[in-house]
């Protein structure tokens, strides 16, 4: 069971110190929220920052890498790295577009695969789904930060 050591000092604080600490904490939270929302507006992505959680994209990207994503309306291209929301899965997936299939009516479906995976992704998709569509793309890879390692260390 985790112990919250920072709470040990609360009984020794007077009301003014406690009020100051609570106010500081709220300012930090609201600043983080404003930065997140600002990035959502700038990038047009519902998830502007994504941490790569697995080694499926090695050697190009490593577990813990942090992506700044961008919502792009241009048609997706083979070889692009996309951040995907797979129906029925809680976490986002970062994989590369492997094949594109364009129907007669202009509707585009595509297949993805992790660079380090032996097989393509239909096993990750919902049952009976064999490809993805534009609606499944949360964003496309824009910039890579190594700070994601910090996030991974604190998650585990």
Main features:
alpha+beta, 25% strand, hydrolase, 2 helices, Peptidase_S26, Umud Fragment, subunit A, 7-stranded antiparallel sheet, EC 3.4.21.89, single chain, signal peptidase activity, 7 strands, 156 residues
Oligomer status: single chain
Radius of gyration: 20 Å
Tell me the overall shape.
Answer: elongated
- In the predicted model, the low-confidence regions spanning at least 5 consecutive residues are none
Query: Helicity, in percent?
Result: 10-25%
What topology, given as strand order, has the largest sheet?
Answer: 1-2-7-3-4-5-6
For the biggest sheet, the summary is: 7 strands, antiparallel
Relative strand content: 25-35%
CATH class of the largest domain: Mainly Beta
CATH superfamily grouping of the largest domain: Umud Fragment, subunit A
SSE string, helix = H, strand = E? Answer: HEEEEEEEH
Q: What name is given to the CATH topology of the largest domain?
A: Umud Fragment, subunit A
Q: End-to-end span in angstroms?
A: 14 Å
Mean pLDDT: 83
Number of DSSP helical runs: 2
Keywords: Endoplasmic reticulum, Hydrolase, Membrane, Protease, Signal-anchor, Transmembrane, Transmembrane helix
GO cellular component, one term: signal peptidase complex
Catalytic activity: Cleavage of hydrophobic, N-terminal signal or leader sequences from secreted and periplasmic proteins
Subunit structure: Component of the signal peptidase complex.
Write up what this structure looks like.
- By secondary structure, the protein is α+β, with helices and mostly antiparallel strands.
- The protein folds into two domains: 5-43; 49-154, Umud Fragment, subunit A.
- It has two helices and seven strands, in the order αβββββββα.
- It has helices spanning 15-43, 148-155; strands at residues 49-51, 66-70, 81-84, 93-102, 108-113, 132-133, 137-145.
- A seven-stranded antiparallel beta sheet has the order 1-2-7-3-4-5-6, with helices on one face.
- The protein is elongated, with a radius of gyration of 20 Å.
